[in-house]
Amino acid sequence: MTVELTRRGNCALITLNRLEALNALSFSIIRDIGAALDTVAEMEGVRALLITGAGEKAFCAGADIKELRSRPLLPQKRGAELGQAVFAKLDNLPVASVALINGYAFGGGLELALACTFRLASRTAKVGLPEIKLGLIPGYGGTQRLPRLIGESRALEMIMTGRTVDVGEAERIGLVNRIVEGDLVEAGEAFAAGFTRYSLPALEFARRAVQRGGGLSLGEGLRVEADLSTLAYRTADAEEGMAAFQEKRKPEFNDG
Ligand code: CAA
Fold it and tell me: How does pLDDT run across 80-109, given as a tens digit for each residue?
């Protein structure tokens, strides 16, 4: 199996496992990621998704360059649309996702991490969008998600120079949330525990408000926030959270 789906407590864990090609994304792996995401969305009790790469060396070295070569234009466009659709599915998953970048995250590999809600990276991680060196540009969301995350100028510098960014710089510019020492999966579980104890509807509304607002004017975004915050207010969990505050006890959320 090149895409393994396992369970770690209340997290699902997807591991890309194609060591001989540094976990590069063949179209078949992309389809398998899509199928794994469908399963995650249905898994009972899963409150977050972790994604990592097998081995010490790479999270994912990007699209499979050998498979990309000499393709007619139309299948190539369909391939870009497939990658984009699977990464959008990840972005839109009911639960938040954490990329655990354990080594190289280049091209489509970084784009996979960018489609996650959060990114943690090991001290040895290196990230970049080197497509320009191949005469290409990113095709699985990099030109859209990276500028939204780190700003247009920094994103264009990475895209137009294709340069490799080390983990210190990646953290400084907000491309990764944290640098992790030690076991990355354990760190991912601990990071996820910072939010998984809260009400799933509230967590989802918060993500939707930020995601939808990203493409809107401030006024329109504020209207989305007013709607979603009112929806959150109507949940039993909100009632429980506010009652627990007043009664000076811990809330017991039931995802309702
Ligand atoms: N596609 C296919 N095979 C890849 C690959 C990729 N993206 N990256 C690495 N491999 C393969 C290598 O070909 C090699 O296999 P062979 O020995 O059979 O040739 C094996 O993985 C190990 O790689 P290296 O020997 O190159 O390992 P290294 O340690 O010397 O270098 C690296 C590591 C710097 C990551 C280097 O492999 C590299 O530059 N890879 C390509 C990175 C890249 O350009 N990614 C962008 C792809 S295009 C894209 O992603 C488009 C998009 O937006 C969707």
Answer: 999 999 999 999 999 999 999 999 999 999
- Catalytic (active site) residue 186: no
CATH code of the domain made up of 200-246: 1.10.12
- pLDDT higher than 90, residue 249: yes
Domain boundaries, the chain: 3-196, 200-246
Give catalytic status of residue 111 as yes or no. Answer: yes
Catalytic residue, candidates 20, 81, 111, 152: 111
Residue closest to 118 by CA, chosen among 7, 168, 193, 46? 193
Strand segments, DSSP code E, in the chain are 3-8, 11-16, 48-53, 58-60, 96-101, 104-106, 118-122, 126-128, 165-166, 178-180
Nearest CA-CA partner of 29 in 100, 83, 94: 83
CATH annotation of 3-196: 3.90.226.10
pLDDT tens, position by position, 117-144: 999 999 999 999 999 999 999 999 999 9
Name every residue whose Cβ is closer than 8 Å to that of residue 223 and which is 6 or more positions away in sequence. none
